[in-house]
Specification:
- The chain contains 20 helices and 20 strands.
- The chain is α+β, with helices and mostly antiparallel strands.
- It has four domains: 301 residues, FAD/NAD(P)-binding domain, CATH 3.50.50; 137 residues, Elongation Factor Tu (Ef-tu), domain 3, CATH 2.40.30; 63 residues, no CATH class; 52 residues, DNA polymerase, domain 1 (Orthogonal Bundle), CATH 1.10.150.
- The strands form four sheets. Strands 1, 2, 6, 7, 8, 9 and 20 form a seven-stranded mixed sheet that branches. Strands 14-15-16-17-13-18 form a six-stranded antiparallel sheet, with no helix packed on it. A four-stranded antiparallel sheet has the order 11-10-19-12, with no helix packed on it.
- The longest helix is centred in the last third of the chain and has 23 residues.
- The two termini are 49 Å apart.
Length: 615
């Protein structure tokens, strides 16, 4: 136990951790006029991209767009500091189009650090949190390593991989939160003693190599889009750089070397206890799980513009350095690879997220919130949106306002948090479009139309931008109505070479009037409207039947979502529940019947019984 020295300053909200979750949590709190302390081990490591130097990707791009509309900073930051932008999945349906950008990781971190330091209601402290201060079932603050007590009305923990962090490189084990950075010790033990369940997870990162050691002539250059779209809806005059990445492949010689090294891998000799990410496996995991594959893609990515340090995307590894080096040098273009940092695995403590409410407040301690990898997620984007929602809801709780809870039909953020609260997380959770049952409604391109009214309620996004979002939504509805009541005139369908005239919505559904015709429609029919509104009206018409079916499903589920379950509800009194159903309901303590229905092990018959008792 520390000798506690009381600080002279008290805060509304204390945020612990300066990663992507901590940054968004602190900014959200401060922008809602709360006096905020951000406690981090090092100011220079705030918003650091410790793994892949990129933002967005499949479903992750959706999260960033939603965060941008609600008032988060990540979308604006990457627009200012990105060096290549691309819209993924263009060959597929609009529901899975996802923006992605390569980042200049140095400029990105500097941008975020400047935003934080210029926000006058944020006080940044370079310290380590060692304990949480409790008063009954309420949080009171934290105790720092220097023995000082920092008091606050709410505490948001966003410790990432730092809680009892342990790096593995072959037989070498290093206590660290990231390569070259000390771990956070003591906080896990404090929370475990307070009754929280603590478990271990594992993630990893690939080696970084020198630019001069790469033979780019043996690789395929990968450029971004020639006319890229920004992440942020408020970004104007967007003309980013288009710095190439490079594609190469492993082959059987690479795999043979890796196989021979498996007995020395901590993943396979029992040294690593935590479970790793299924969808971002290490290279040694790939050759075991996908043994029928003779080759795996590797992307060489610069970590910043003009960098000598390059990231070998796809070659995450915890193997000994000699094996990593020998295997990588069999890859075309990497025969002379020089290591700056080896790949490594890292184990860390996390708190299974069934211990949280949908507001991200812990169920047993009022005023204590968890966000980011501490909840078992992976990825900058997943962390950022959790941090933002925790910051918003902590601030609203202090103002005696109801929390902002996004449903699964409103946002990918809602899908993410609901999955965490209602499903077992025994491996790092990563967002995918396949996890959203209403993904045709939740497109990356319509985040502003879906969430402008919630952004207004939160109050971080400027009124000017909220009005812009609303006008775009209203314009979309006007154009959609026009398409349903007007036919394409002869002079226009002749210009478009459509072959025959018909009502606009019929032409769109028959795919006679296509995406490439929209610039002509904009010029002739809607010159005073945003192209974004026209595009959205076109998509709404094209997929109208499917969208209508999904909205009907949403309405059916809403009946269950609206059915509240009292926090004191006694499941033991219902004898007709299945044993597994009763056990899971007691463990997860769902807030609504809708949440209960998504818990693995709770059967449809359990839900019917529950509904009868609640009525």
């Amino acid at each position: 136990m520390f000798h506690v020295k009381r600080t002279f300053e008290e805060y509304d909200i204390i945020v612990v951790g300066g990663g992507h979750a901590g940054v968004e949590a602190a900014l959200a709190s401060a922008r809602l006029h709360k006096k905020t302390a951000l406690v981090t081990l090092s100011k220079t490591s705030i918003a650091r991209m410790s793994c892949n130097p990129s933002i967005g990707g499949l479903a992750k791009g959706h999260l960033v767009r939603e965060l941008d509309v609600l008032g988060g900073e990540m979308g604006r930051a990457i627009d200012k500091t990105g060096i290549q932008f691309k819209l993924l999945n263009r060959s597929k349906g609009r529901a899975v189009w996802s923006p992605r950008a390569q980042a200049d990781k140095r400029k990105y971190a500097t941008y975020m650090q400047n935003i934080l330091s210029s926000t006058h209601t944020i006080h940044i402290l370079e310290e380590e949190a060692k304990e949480v201060i409790f008063s009954g079932n309420c949080v009171q603050g934290i105790i720092l390593k220097n023995g000082e007590a920092l008091y606050g009305k709410a505490v948001i923990l966003t410790n990432g991989t730092f809680l009892q962090g342990l790096i593995h490189i072959g037989p070498i084990q290093i206590a660290a939160g990231r390569y070259g950075e000390l771990p956070s010790l003591g906080l896990s033990d404090c929370l475990r003693a307070a009754g929280f369940v603590v478990k271990r997870l594992k993630t990893g990162t690939p080696p970084r190599i020198t630019r001069r050691s790469i033979d780019f002539s043996r690789m395929i250059p990968q450029f971004g889009d020639s006319n890229p779209e920004p992440f942020s809806y408020v970004t104007t005059h967007f003309e980013p750089k288009n710095v190439p990445c490079y594609l190469t492949h492993t082959h059987e010689n690479t795999h043979d070397i890796l196989r021979r090294g498996l007995p020395r891998s901590p993943l396979y000799n029992g040294s690593i206890k935590g479970k790793g990410p299924r969808y971002c496996p290490s290279i040694e995991d790939k050759i075991v799980r996908f043994h029928d594959k003779s080759s795996h893609q590797l992307f060489l990515e610069p970590e910043w513009e003009g960098a000598d340090q390059w990231y070998v995307n796809g070659f995450s590894s915890s193997l000994p350095i000699d094996i990593q080096c020998k295997a990588l040098r069999t890859v075309p273009g990497l025969e002379g690879a020089e290591f700056i940092k080896p790949g490594y695995a890292i184990e860390y403590d996390y708190f299974p997220s069934y211990q949280l409410r949908h507001s991200l407040e812990t169920k047993d301690v009022k005023g204590l919130y968890f966000a980011g990898q501490i909840n078992g997620t992976s990825g900058y984007e997943e962390a950022a949106v959790q941090g933002f929602m925790a910051g918003v809801n902590a601030a609203r709780a202090l103002d005696n306002q109801e929390p902002i809870i996004l449903s699964r039909s409103e946002a990918y953020i809602g899908v993410l948090i609901d999955d965490l609260i209602t499903k077992e997380t025994d491996e790092p959770y990563r967002m995918f479009t396949s996890l959203a049952e209403y993904r045709l409604i939740l497109r990356a391109d319509n985040a502003d139309h879906r969430l402008w009214n919630i952004a207004q309620t939160i109050g971080i996004q400027s009124l000017e931008h909220c009005n812009t979002f609303k006008k775009s939504f209203d314009d979309r509805e006007m154009i959609r109505t026009y398409f349903k009541h007007h036919s394409c005139p002869k002079e226009l369908f002749s210009t478009l070479s459509l072959g025959h005239s018909d009502r606009y919505d019929h032409l769109i559904k028959k795919q006679i009037l296509r995406q490439e015709h929209l610039p002509v429609l904009h010029e002739h029919l809607f010159p005073d409207f945003q192209t974004h509104s026209l595009d959205q009206a076109f998509i709404e018409i094209l997929y109208e039947g499917y969208i209508q079916r999904q909205r009907q499903m949403v309405e059916k589920m809403r009946l269950l979502e609206d059915q509240q379950i009292p926090s004191t509800f006694c499941y033991d009194s219902i004898k007709s529940l299945s044993n597994e159903g009763r056990e899971k309901l007691k463990k997860y303590r769902p807030e609504t019947v809708g949440q209960a229905s998504r818990i693995r092990g709770v059967s449809p018959s359990d839900i019917q019984v529950l509904l009868i008792y609640l009525r």
